[in-house]
Amino acid sequence: MRTCAKPGLWGLCACLAAGPAIAQPSGQGPFLTVQVGGGLGLVAVGGGWWGGRQRLEPELLVGYVPRALGSRPLFIFTAKATYVAPRPRLELGERAWVQPLAVGGFVNYTAGRAFFVRSVRTGRYPQGYYWWSSAVRLGACASLRVVRVREPGQGFRQVLYSEWSTNDLYAISRASNCRLRLTEIVVWGAGAKAGL
Amino acid sequence: MIPGVGGLRYVLLPLLLGGCAALEFSPNQTWVPPAERNLTAQNLTRLYQTPPPAPADTLRFVFIGDSQRFYDEAEAFVRSVNQQRGIHFVLLAGDLTDFGLPREMRWLHHRLRHLRVPYLTVIGNHDQVANGRLNYQRIYGPLNYSFEYGGTRFVLLDTNSREYGFPGTVPNVAWLRARLADTAGTRRQVVVCHVPPTDSDFDPRLVLPYAAALRASPRVVLHLAGHVHRFSAQQPFQDGLSYLTGYSFGKRRYQIVSLWGRQRQFHLETVTYADVR
Protein backbone atom coordinates (compact mmCIF):
# COMPACT_ATOMS: atom_id res chain seq x y z
CA MET A 1 0.00 0.00 0.00
CA ARG A 2 2.98 2.28 0.35
CA THR A 3 2.79 2.74 -3.38
CA CYS A 4 -0.44 4.60 -2.76
CA ALA A 5 0.84 6.88 -0.02
CA LYS A 6 0.48 9.88 -2.34
CA PRO A 7 -2.34 8.63 -4.45
CA GLY A 8 -4.23 10.35 -7.14
CA LEU A 9 -6.31 9.00 -9.93
CA TRP A 10 -3.29 7.38 -11.53
CA GLY A 11 -2.18 6.05 -8.15
CA LEU A 12 -5.56 4.47 -7.64
CA CYS A 13 -5.48 3.02 -11.12
CA ALA A 14 -2.07 1.55 -10.35
CA CYS A 15 -3.37 0.10 -7.10
CA LEU A 16 -6.45 -1.30 -8.80
CA ALA A 17 -4.32 -2.78 -11.54
CA ALA A 18 -2.03 -4.37 -8.96
CA GLY A 19 -4.95 -6.10 -7.36
CA PRO A 20 -6.70 -5.85 -4.04
CA ALA A 21 -3.97 -7.60 -2.11
CA ILE A 22 -1.97 -4.42 -1.80
CA ALA A 23 -4.90 -2.18 -0.92
CA GLN A 24 -5.76 -1.22 2.60
CA PRO A 25 -9.38 -0.11 2.88
CA SER A 26 -9.06 2.74 5.29
CA GLY A 27 -11.87 4.96 4.04
CA GLN A 28 -9.28 7.65 3.38
CA GLY A 29 -7.81 7.77 -0.05
CA PRO A 30 -8.59 7.88 -3.74
CA PHE A 31 -11.56 6.34 -5.44
CA LEU A 32 -12.99 5.86 -8.91
CA THR A 33 -16.57 6.71 -9.82
CA VAL A 34 -18.98 5.58 -12.49
CA GLN A 35 -22.31 7.42 -12.59
CA VAL A 36 -25.32 7.02 -14.82
CA GLY A 37 -27.67 9.96 -15.30
CA GLY A 38 -28.16 12.67 -12.74
CA GLY A 39 -27.67 15.25 -15.51
CA LEU A 40 -23.95 14.44 -15.68
CA GLY A 41 -24.04 12.16 -18.72
CA LEU A 42 -25.37 8.85 -19.92
CA VAL A 43 -22.21 7.64 -18.25
CA ALA A 44 -19.81 9.78 -16.26
CA VAL A 45 -16.50 8.44 -15.05
CA GLY A 46 -13.87 9.99 -12.86
CA GLY A 47 -12.42 9.87 -9.44
CA GLY A 48 -11.84 11.72 -6.25
CA TRP A 49 -10.63 11.51 -2.73
CA TRP A 50 -12.24 10.20 0.43
CA GLY A 51 -11.38 12.65 3.15
CA GLY A 52 -12.68 14.41 6.20
CA ARG A 53 -12.94 11.15 8.15
CA GLN A 54 -14.89 9.58 5.31
CA ARG A 55 -17.39 12.40 5.25
CA LEU A 56 -16.21 14.44 2.28
CA GLU A 57 -15.93 13.23 -1.28
CA PRO A 58 -14.58 15.77 -3.76
CA GLU A 59 -14.38 14.34 -7.26
CA LEU A 60 -14.02 15.15 -10.93
CA LEU A 61 -16.14 13.44 -13.59
CA VAL A 62 -16.30 13.42 -17.36
CA GLY A 63 -19.71 12.56 -18.77
CA TYR A 64 -20.80 11.57 -22.25
CA VAL A 65 -24.19 11.74 -23.92
CA PRO A 66 -24.31 10.03 -27.33
CA ARG A 67 -25.89 11.55 -30.40
CA ALA A 68 -28.88 9.26 -30.07
CA LEU A 69 -29.84 10.96 -26.81
CA GLY A 70 -28.58 14.47 -27.40
CA SER A 71 -28.92 14.92 -31.18
CA ARG A 72 -25.20 15.69 -31.00
CA PRO A 73 -22.54 14.14 -28.76
CA LEU A 74 -22.31 15.98 -25.46
CA PHE A 75 -19.28 16.03 -23.16
CA ILE A 76 -19.90 17.23 -19.63
CA PHE A 77 -17.09 18.05 -17.21
CA THR A 78 -18.18 18.08 -13.58
CA ALA A 79 -16.60 19.01 -10.25
CA LYS A 80 -18.66 17.59 -7.44
CA ALA A 81 -18.40 17.43 -3.69
CA THR A 82 -20.49 15.26 -1.41
CA TYR A 83 -20.85 15.35 2.36
CA VAL A 84 -21.83 12.03 3.88
CA ALA A 85 -23.52 12.24 7.26
CA PRO A 86 -22.08 9.48 9.47
CA ARG A 87 -25.41 9.09 11.21
CA PRO A 88 -27.99 7.72 10.77
CA ARG A 89 -26.50 4.46 9.63
CA LEU A 90 -28.35 1.21 9.04
CA GLU A 91 -26.13 -1.81 9.53
CA LEU A 92 -26.54 -4.57 6.95
CA GLY A 93 -23.88 -6.85 8.32
CA GLU A 94 -20.46 -6.81 9.80
CA ARG A 95 -18.95 -4.80 6.98
CA ALA A 96 -21.84 -3.23 5.12
CA TRP A 97 -24.29 -0.49 5.93
CA VAL A 98 -26.71 2.02 4.46
CA GLN A 99 -26.13 5.72 4.88
CA PRO A 100 -29.35 7.43 3.91
CA LEU A 101 -28.12 10.98 4.06
CA ALA A 102 -25.50 12.41 1.78
CA VAL A 103 -25.78 15.86 0.28
CA GLY A 104 -23.62 17.70 -2.16
CA GLY A 105 -23.20 20.21 -4.90
CA PHE A 106 -21.69 20.30 -8.33
CA VAL A 107 -20.73 22.62 -11.09
CA ASN A 108 -20.35 21.39 -14.63
CA TYR A 109 -19.47 22.59 -18.06
CA THR A 110 -20.98 21.26 -21.28
CA ALA A 111 -18.54 21.61 -24.14
CA GLY A 112 -19.50 22.62 -27.65
CA ARG A 113 -20.15 25.60 -29.86
CA ALA A 114 -23.85 25.47 -29.09
CA PHE A 115 -23.20 26.33 -25.46
CA PHE A 116 -21.96 29.64 -24.11
CA VAL A 117 -20.54 30.75 -20.79
CA ARG A 118 -21.58 34.33 -21.52
CA SER A 119 -23.93 35.05 -24.39
CA VAL A 120 -22.07 38.21 -25.39
CA ARG A 121 -18.97 36.17 -26.18
CA THR A 122 -20.72 34.36 -29.01
CA GLY A 123 -20.69 37.60 -30.99
CA ARG A 124 -24.38 37.23 -31.77
CA TYR A 125 -25.89 39.03 -28.82
CA PRO A 126 -25.55 42.42 -27.18
CA GLN A 127 -24.39 42.61 -23.58
CA GLY A 128 -26.83 40.95 -21.19
CA TYR A 129 -29.13 39.57 -23.89
CA TYR A 130 -29.22 36.19 -22.13
CA TRP A 131 -28.28 36.52 -18.47
CA TRP A 132 -27.50 32.86 -17.81
CA SER A 133 -24.84 30.51 -19.08
CA SER A 134 -26.05 27.65 -21.21
CA ALA A 135 -22.74 25.81 -20.73
CA VAL A 136 -22.30 26.02 -16.95
CA ARG A 137 -24.76 24.44 -14.54
CA LEU A 138 -24.77 24.55 -10.77
CA GLY A 139 -26.55 21.79 -8.98
CA ALA A 140 -27.41 20.29 -5.63
CA CYS A 141 -27.87 16.63 -4.88
CA ALA A 142 -28.93 14.27 -2.14
CA SER A 143 -28.19 10.57 -2.14
CA LEU A 144 -28.66 7.34 -0.35
CA ARG A 145 -25.74 4.95 -0.35
CA VAL A 146 -24.75 1.46 0.52
CA VAL A 147 -21.19 1.02 1.71
CA ARG A 148 -19.21 -2.15 1.91
CA VAL A 149 -15.71 -2.42 3.30
CA ARG A 150 -13.41 -5.40 3.15
CA GLU A 151 -10.88 -6.90 5.43
CA PRO A 152 -7.57 -5.04 5.31
CA GLY A 153 -5.69 -6.22 2.29
CA GLN A 154 -8.70 -8.05 0.87
CA GLY A 155 -10.15 -5.46 -1.44
CA PHE A 156 -11.58 -2.03 -1.92
CA ARG A 157 -14.12 0.03 -0.13
CA GLN A 158 -17.25 -0.03 -2.32
CA VAL A 159 -20.14 2.40 -2.49
CA LEU A 160 -23.37 2.21 -4.46
CA TYR A 161 -25.52 5.29 -4.46
CA SER A 162 -28.87 6.49 -5.72
CA GLU A 163 -28.92 10.23 -6.18
CA TRP A 164 -31.58 12.90 -6.70
CA SER A 165 -30.51 16.28 -7.91
CA THR A 166 -31.60 19.51 -9.52
CA ASN A 167 -29.84 22.40 -11.18
CA ASP A 168 -29.93 26.17 -11.03
CA LEU A 169 -32.24 26.64 -14.03
CA TYR A 170 -34.77 24.13 -12.76
CA ALA A 171 -34.63 25.71 -9.30
CA ILE A 172 -35.15 29.19 -10.75
CA SER A 173 -38.14 27.90 -12.70
CA ARG A 174 -39.57 26.43 -9.51
CA ALA A 175 -38.92 29.62 -7.54
CA SER A 176 -41.35 31.62 -9.64
CA ASN A 177 -43.92 28.86 -10.12
CA CYS A 178 -45.35 27.41 -6.96
CA ARG A 179 -47.40 24.93 -8.99
CA LEU A 180 -44.34 23.46 -10.64
CA ARG A 181 -44.02 20.26 -8.63
CA LEU A 182 -40.78 19.23 -7.00
CA THR A 183 -41.00 15.93 -8.84
CA GLU A 184 -40.84 17.91 -12.07
CA ILE A 185 -37.53 19.56 -11.26
CA VAL A 186 -35.71 16.63 -9.69
CA VAL A 187 -33.65 14.22 -11.76
CA TRP A 188 -32.23 10.86 -10.83
CA GLY A 189 -28.92 9.16 -11.22
CA ALA A 190 -27.06 6.25 -9.72
CA GLY A 191 -23.45 5.33 -9.40
CA ALA A 192 -20.73 3.24 -7.89
CA LYS A 193 -17.44 4.12 -6.27
CA ALA A 194 -14.51 1.95 -5.39
CA GLY A 195 -11.35 3.00 -3.71
CA LEU A 196 -8.91 2.66 -0.91
CA MET B 1 -25.43 -5.32 -6.18
CA ILE B 2 -22.74 -5.96 -3.64
CA PRO B 3 -22.41 -9.70 -3.32
CA GLY B 4 -23.13 -11.20 0.01
CA VAL B 5 -25.50 -8.52 1.19
CA GLY B 6 -28.79 -9.94 0.01
CA GLY B 7 -30.95 -7.54 1.98
CA LEU B 8 -29.77 -4.68 -0.15
CA ARG B 9 -32.08 -5.63 -2.98
CA TYR B 10 -34.99 -4.52 -0.85
CA VAL B 11 -33.40 -1.11 -0.45
CA LEU B 12 -32.13 -0.62 -3.98
CA LEU B 13 -34.98 -2.02 -6.03
CA PRO B 14 -37.58 0.58 -5.02
CA LEU B 15 -35.04 3.32 -5.53
CA LEU B 16 -34.18 2.10 -9.00
CA LEU B 17 -37.78 1.71 -10.03
CA GLY B 18 -38.76 5.06 -8.58
CA GLY B 19 -35.86 6.81 -10.20
CA CYS B 20 -36.02 5.58 -13.76
CA ALA B 21 -38.82 7.95 -14.72
CA ALA B 22 -36.68 10.87 -13.54
CA LEU B 23 -33.50 9.62 -15.17
CA GLU B 24 -31.84 12.48 -17.01
CA PHE B 25 -28.52 12.33 -18.82
CA SER B 26 -28.20 16.05 -19.39
CA PRO B 27 -30.50 19.07 -19.14
CA ASN B 28 -29.66 19.47 -22.84
CA GLN B 29 -30.54 15.95 -23.92
CA THR B 30 -33.02 15.83 -26.75
CA TRP B 31 -34.40 12.43 -25.85
CA VAL B 32 -37.98 12.60 -24.62
CA PRO B 33 -40.60 9.87 -24.28
CA PRO B 34 -42.06 8.93 -27.68
CA ALA B 35 -45.52 10.19 -26.70
CA GLU B 36 -44.07 13.69 -26.36
CA ARG B 37 -42.46 13.88 -29.80
CA ASN B 38 -43.86 15.51 -32.94
CA LEU B 39 -46.45 17.47 -31.01
CA THR B 40 -47.17 19.72 -33.98
CA ALA B 41 -48.22 16.71 -36.05
CA GLN B 42 -50.18 15.34 -33.11
CA ASN B 43 -52.02 18.63 -32.63
CA LEU B 44 -52.76 18.96 -36.35
CA THR B 45 -54.20 15.45 -36.36
CA ARG B 46 -56.37 16.46 -33.45
CA LEU B 47 -57.39 19.67 -35.21
CA TYR B 48 -58.39 17.87 -38.40
CA GLN B 49 -60.60 15.55 -36.37
CA THR B 50 -62.71 18.59 -35.55
CA PRO B 51 -64.99 19.66 -38.41
CA PRO B 52 -63.89 23.10 -39.67
CA PRO B 53 -66.39 25.94 -39.78
CA ALA B 54 -68.47 26.21 -42.92
CA PRO B 55 -67.09 28.64 -45.52
CA ALA B 56 -69.56 31.31 -44.51
CA ASP B 57 -68.86 30.88 -40.81
CA THR B 58 -66.27 32.50 -38.63
CA LEU B 59 -62.94 30.89 -37.73
CA ARG B 60 -61.96 31.67 -34.14
CA PHE B 61 -58.69 30.95 -32.43
CA VAL B 62 -56.76 32.09 -29.38
CA PHE B 63 -53.56 34.02 -30.00
CA ILE B 64 -50.88 34.42 -27.32
CA GLY B 65 -47.08 34.50 -27.16
CA ASP B 66 -44.16 33.82 -24.89
CA SER B 67 -45.16 31.19 -22.35
CA GLN B 68 -41.51 31.08 -21.23
CA ARG B 69 -41.19 30.65 -17.45
CA PHE B 70 -44.90 31.16 -16.69
CA TYR B 71 -46.08 27.69 -15.73
CA ASP B 72 -48.53 28.83 -13.06
CA GLU B 73 -50.03 31.24 -15.57
CA ALA B 74 -50.19 28.41 -18.13
CA GLU B 75 -52.50 26.47 -15.86
CA ALA B 76 -54.76 29.51 -15.43
CA PHE B 77 -54.63 30.08 -19.19
CA VAL B 78 -55.84 26.54 -19.83
CA ARG B 79 -58.73 26.97 -17.39
CA SER B 80 -59.74 30.20 -19.08
CA VAL B 81 -59.52 28.94 -22.67
CA ASN B 82 -61.46 25.82 -21.75
CA GLN B 83 -64.35 28.06 -20.70
CA GLN B 84 -64.51 29.72 -24.11
CA ARG B 85 -66.98 28.47 -26.66
CA GLY B 86 -66.46 28.27 -30.40
CA ILE B 87 -62.66 28.25 -30.25
CA HIS B 88 -60.97 26.03 -32.84
CA PHE B 89 -57.38 26.06 -31.65
CA VAL B 90 -54.67 28.02 -29.82
CA LEU B 91 -51.74 29.71 -31.54
CA LEU B 92 -48.63 30.23 -29.39
CA ALA B 93 -46.20 32.64 -31.04
CA GLY B 94 -42.89 31.30 -29.77
CA ASP B 95 -40.66 31.40 -26.71
CA LEU B 96 -42.20 28.32 -25.23
CA THR B 97 -39.18 28.11 -22.95
CA ASP B 98 -36.82 30.44 -21.16
CA PHE B 99 -33.62 28.38 -21.43
CA GLY B 100 -34.25 26.17 -24.46
CA LEU B 101 -34.36 23.02 -22.32
CA PRO B 102 -36.47 20.00 -23.24
CA ARG B 103 -37.78 19.72 -19.72
CA GLU B 104 -39.26 23.21 -20.06
CA MET B 105 -41.05 22.18 -23.26
CA ARG B 106 -42.40 19.16 -21.44
CA TRP B 107 -43.49 21.22 -18.43
CA LEU B 108 -45.44 23.45 -20.81
CA HIS B 109 -46.92 20.55 -22.75
CA HIS B 110 -47.98 18.81 -19.54
CA ARG B 111 -50.14 21.86 -18.89
CA LEU B 112 -51.33 22.76 -22.40
CA ARG B 113 -52.34 19.18 -23.19
CA HIS B 114 -55.29 19.82 -20.90
CA LEU B 115 -56.67 22.35 -23.37
CA ARG B 116 -59.92 21.20 -24.94
CA VAL B 117 -58.62 22.39 -28.31
CA PRO B 118 -55.26 21.66 -29.96
CA TYR B 119 -52.44 24.16 -29.70
CA LEU B 120 -49.94 25.03 -32.40
CA THR B 121 -46.62 26.75 -31.92
CA VAL B 122 -43.81 28.50 -33.73
CA ILE B 123 -40.23 28.54 -32.47
CA GLY B 124 -38.96 31.56 -30.54
CA ASN B 125 -35.47 32.83 -29.90
CA HIS B 126 -35.32 31.45 -26.35
CA ASP B 127 -36.29 28.06 -27.74
CA GLN B 128 -33.08 28.01 -29.77
CA VAL B 129 -30.58 28.50 -26.94
CA ALA B 130 -28.12 25.62 -26.36
CA ASN B 131 -29.71 22.48 -27.83
CA GLY B 132 -33.06 24.23 -28.01
CA ARG B 133 -33.50 24.18 -31.76
CA LEU B 134 -32.93 20.43 -31.83
CA ASN B 135 -35.24 20.02 -28.85
CA TYR B 136 -37.99 21.97 -30.59
CA GLN B 137 -37.59 19.92 -33.74
CA ARG B 138 -37.82 16.67 -31.83
CA ILE B 139 -40.59 17.65 -29.44
CA TYR B 140 -42.71 19.88 -31.69
CA GLY B 141 -41.55 19.48 -35.27
CA PRO B 142 -40.48 21.62 -38.23
CA LEU B 143 -39.30 25.19 -37.73
CA ASN B 144 -41.22 26.33 -40.83
CA TYR B 145 -44.56 24.75 -41.62
CA SER B 146 -48.04 25.56 -42.75
CA PHE B 147 -51.47 24.08 -42.35
CA GLU B 148 -54.93 24.73 -43.72
CA TYR B 149 -58.08 24.84 -41.67
CA GLY B 150 -61.44 26.42 -42.31
CA GLY B 151 -60.35 27.74 -45.72
CA THR B 152 -57.39 29.52 -44.12
CA ARG B 153 -53.72 28.74 -44.63
CA PHE B 154 -51.60 29.43 -41.56
CA VAL B 155 -47.92 29.88 -42.41
CA LEU B 156 -45.61 29.61 -39.39
CA LEU B 157 -41.93 30.34 -39.75
CA ASP B 158 -38.72 30.89 -37.86
CA THR B 159 -37.84 34.59 -37.84
CA ASN B 160 -35.25 34.42 -35.05
CA SER B 161 -32.45 35.78 -37.22
CA ARG B 162 -30.16 36.77 -34.35
CA GLU B 163 -29.92 33.16 -33.16
CA TYR B 164 -28.23 32.29 -36.43
CA GLY B 165 -26.01 35.38 -36.50
CA PHE B 166 -28.04 37.14 -39.20
CA PRO B 167 -26.95 34.89 -42.06
CA GLY B 168 -29.40 36.41 -44.54
CA THR B 169 -31.40 33.17 -44.81
CA VAL B 170 -33.58 33.41 -41.67
CA PRO B 171 -36.43 33.93 -42.12
CA ASN B 172 -36.60 31.89 -45.29
CA VAL B 173 -38.33 34.43 -47.49
CA ALA B 174 -38.26 32.19 -50.57
CA TRP B 175 -40.10 29.47 -48.66
CA LEU B 176 -42.59 32.03 -47.35
CA ARG B 177 -43.19 33.38 -50.83
CA ALA B 178 -43.82 29.87 -52.15
CA ARG B 179 -46.26 29.03 -49.36
CA LEU B 180 -48.17 32.25 -49.94
CA ALA B 181 -48.21 31.78 -53.71
CA ASP B 182 -49.96 28.45 -53.33
CA THR B 183 -53.51 29.58 -52.77
CA ALA B 184 -55.25 26.38 -53.84
CA GLY B 185 -58.20 25.73 -51.59
CA THR B 186 -57.62 28.73 -49.34
CA ARG B 187 -59.61 31.92 -49.04
CA ARG B 188 -57.20 33.71 -46.75
CA GLN B 189 -53.79 33.38 -45.18
CA VAL B 190 -52.30 34.20 -41.81
CA VAL B 191 -48.55 34.45 -41.18
CA VAL B 192 -47.27 33.63 -37.70
CA CYS B 193 -43.77 34.05 -36.31
CA HIS B 194 -41.99 34.99 -33.11
CA VAL B 195 -39.75 37.99 -33.84
CA PRO B 196 -41.74 40.65 -35.73
CA PRO B 197 -40.04 42.32 -38.69
CA THR B 198 -40.03 45.61 -36.82
CA ASP B 199 -37.71 44.22 -34.13
CA SER B 200 -33.91 44.51 -34.04
CA ASP B 201 -33.66 40.72 -33.68
CA PHE B 202 -35.09 40.34 -37.20
CA ASP B 203 -32.47 40.35 -39.94
CA PRO B 204 -32.51 43.98 -41.19
CA ARG B 205 -31.55 42.87 -44.71
CA LEU B 206 -34.70 40.77 -44.92
CA VAL B 207 -37.25 43.20 -43.53
CA LEU B 208 -38.22 44.71 -46.86
CA PRO B 209 -38.20 41.43 -48.85
CA TYR B 210 -40.29 39.87 -46.09
CA ALA B 211 -42.80 42.72 -46.10
CA ALA B 212 -42.87 42.65 -49.89
CA ALA B 213 -43.69 38.94 -49.90
CA LEU B 214 -46.65 39.57 -47.64
CA ARG B 215 -47.74 42.64 -49.59
CA ALA B 216 -47.74 40.64 -52.79
CA SER B 217 -50.20 38.15 -51.30
CA PRO B 218 -53.62 39.77 -51.19
CA ARG B 219 -55.09 36.87 -49.23
CA VAL B 220 -52.92 37.54 -46.19
CA VAL B 221 -55.28 38.81 -43.52
CA LEU B 222 -52.95 39.17 -40.57
CA HIS B 223 -49.36 38.89 -39.43
CA LEU B 224 -49.03 37.60 -35.86
CA ALA B 225 -45.88 37.64 -33.73
CA GLY B 226 -44.74 37.46 -30.12
CA HIS B 227 -41.41 38.42 -28.57
CA VAL B 228 -42.33 41.83 -27.17
CA HIS B 229 -44.68 40.45 -24.47
CA ARG B 230 -47.40 43.00 -25.12
CA PHE B 231 -50.26 43.46 -27.51
CA SER B 232 -49.80 45.86 -30.37
CA ALA B 233 -51.53 46.39 -33.69
CA GLN B 234 -49.98 48.49 -36.39
CA GLN B 235 -49.40 48.73 -40.11
CA PRO B 236 -45.67 49.47 -40.12
CA PHE B 237 -45.27 49.22 -43.88
CA GLN B 238 -48.32 51.34 -44.75
CA ASP B 239 -49.61 48.64 -47.05
CA GLY B 240 -52.91 47.91 -45.39
CA LEU B 241 -51.70 44.74 -43.70
CA SER B 242 -52.01 44.60 -39.91
CA TYR B 243 -49.08 43.31 -37.89
CA LEU B 244 -50.09 42.23 -34.40
CA THR B 245 -47.99 41.18 -31.43
CA GLY B 246 -49.49 39.14 -28.62
CA TYR B 247 -49.43 39.21 -24.85
CA SER B 248 -47.06 36.96 -23.01
CA PHE B 249 -48.42 34.43 -20.51
CA GLY B 250 -47.06 36.69 -17.80
CA LYS B 251 -49.57 39.37 -18.74
CA ARG B 252 -52.45 36.96 -18.08
CA ARG B 253 -54.22 38.16 -21.18
CA TYR B 254 -54.82 36.70 -24.60
CA GLN B 255 -56.60 37.58 -27.80
CA ILE B 256 -59.42 35.74 -29.47
CA VAL B 257 -59.07 36.31 -33.20
CA SER B 258 -62.08 35.90 -35.46
CA LEU B 259 -61.73 35.70 -39.24
CA TRP B 260 -64.49 35.71 -41.79
CA GLY B 261 -65.18 36.73 -45.37
CA ARG B 262 -62.76 37.05 -48.23
CA GLN B 263 -61.41 40.47 -47.38
CA ARG B 264 -58.98 41.42 -44.64
CA GLN B 265 -61.71 41.20 -42.06
CA PHE B 266 -60.91 40.22 -38.52
CA HIS B 267 -62.10 40.90 -35.02
CA LEU B 268 -60.06 40.91 -31.83
CA GLU B 269 -61.29 40.27 -28.33
CA THR B 270 -59.03 40.62 -25.31
CA VAL B 271 -59.57 38.17 -22.48
CA THR B 272 -58.05 38.67 -19.03
CA TYR B 273 -57.76 35.55 -16.95
CA ALA B 274 -57.59 35.29 -13.21
CA ASP B 275 -54.59 34.74 -10.98
CA VAL B 276 -53.58 31.25 -10.07
CA ARG B 277 -55.39 29.99 -7.02
UniProtKB/TrEMBL annotation, chain A:
Keywords: Signal. Residues 1-23 form the signal peptide. It comes from the Bacteria. This is Uncharacterized protein. It comes from Hymenobacter daecheongensis DSM 21074.
Automatic annotation (TrEMBL), chain B:
Pfam families: Metallophos. GO terms for molecular function: hydrolase activity. InterPro entries: Calcineurin-like_PHP (IPR004843), Metallo-depent_PP-like (IPR029052), STPP_CPPED1 (IPR051918). Residues 59-230 form the Calcineurin-like phosphoesterase domain. This is Calcineurin-like phosphoesterase.
